Amino acid sequence: RIYRLNEIMNFQAKDDPFALTSMRVFNELKNRFSEVEKATSLFRIPEQTVWYEGNSFSFDDNYFADSSFLEVFPFELIKGNSKTALIEPKSIVISEDVAKTIFGDVDPLGKMLQYSKNSYKVTGVIDPKANPSHFGNISALLSINSMSSNLKQNISEDYGQLSMYSYFKLRELQDPKLVEQKINEWSLKTI
Q: Do 90 and 143 form a contact (C-beta atoms < 8 A)?
């Protein structure tokens, strides 16, 4: 029941499929179709250096994620509340491996991690290995509400700014082919 939204761009009379969509497309589509139960998006962040108590650590597979991510994808939350973990700006959910690397046996909830110029409060710990997916080994999910307003504006202004992975969870008994057809019709009229 979970589907990734892909965009197909036409370059020099050739269709080129992308797993990414623009924030503008995602925002316009997520509430447009009654067949969609929940929608979520991810914005990949390159390898990050994280500081905690004077020590630095580097992690790949970091994402800005909206608060619906943990409702759409059933990742096991070992610590924290999946309904609230990604709502507040500057909140972060880390993987169990990252928690062990940085904190050892100390409970990471409520601890502050320094990412670049910003401090993030650990609000959850997930075990990505418990629910294997195409995401691979997620290191951290940072609340998308932490994204700078300049970056949000830059990636949401036009339909061609392909920057996010977007997912829809369809309501039970919905025909995905029909939803795809409706999205394609919308796309042809709008973009």
A: yes
95 burial (CB, 10 Å; 0-12 / 13-18 / 19+) is buried
How far apart are the C-alpha atoms of 70 and 38, rounded to whole Å? 11
Beta carbons within 10 angstroms of residue 4's beta carbon: 12
Tens digits of residue pLDDT in 171-191: 999 999 999 999 999 988 887
Looking up tokens 């709008």 gives: 190
Q: In Å, how far are 32, 37, 42, 51, 136 from 140, measured between CA atoms?
A: 30, 25, 11, 14, 12
How much of the chain is in helix, strand and coil states, percent to nearest 5? 25, 40, 35
Of 96, 190, 187, nearest to 140 by C-alpha is 96
Distance CA 95, CA 113 (A): 13
Find the mean pLDDT for residues 105-111.
Answer: 97
What does the pLDDT read at residue 141?
96
Strand spans (E) along 7-159: 7-11, 14-18, 21-22, 36-45, 48-52, 55-59, 62-65, 76-80, 91-95, 112-115, 118-127, 140-143
Verdict on whether the full-model pTM lies above 0.85: yes
Q: Of how many residues is the chain composed? A: 191
Q: What are phi and psi of 101, to 5 degrees?
A: -65, -45
